[in-house]
Amino acid sequence: MSVEQDVDVDPRPSGWHALQIVALPVDTNQHGLIHGGWLAGHMDMAGNMACTRETQGKVATVAIENIAFLSPIQVGQTVGCFTRILGIGRSSIRIEVDAWVRNLDKDAAWVKVAEGLFVFVAIDDNGRTRAIARS
Fold first, then answer.
1. Which candidate, 115, 68, 67, 117, places its Cα nearest to that of 92?
2. Which domains occur in the chain, in start order?
3. What is the pTM for the complete model shown?
4. Model confidence over 60-81: pLDDT tens digits?
């Protein structure tokens, strides 16, 4: 049996569960599906939360290298964003953020709907780049 390369071998969320929200009717486009921009904003917030936690201070988004939208999101689904730090430089962090959805049923499975790569930079209270302290 061969496994297609674009299919996750173990299709479950992994990493830090940084954010969870329910998709509401106000977040839809003219087709009744959740806006990609709405999801991108929540993925950015999840990345920000994870990087703030890692650097123990303020961070700002420097780049969104890419976001791949894999499947539409329906109103009423729970959206969870999971993060994994990929690398830490002197002042920047590269992070992967995956978005998964599930229905509110007790035994509902998570389904991946998007994945993205983000870059954040640590900043001080004046908005200037700062070094990330190493533990």
1. 117
2. 16-122 (3.10.129.10)
3. 0.90
4. 999 999 999 999 999 999 999 9
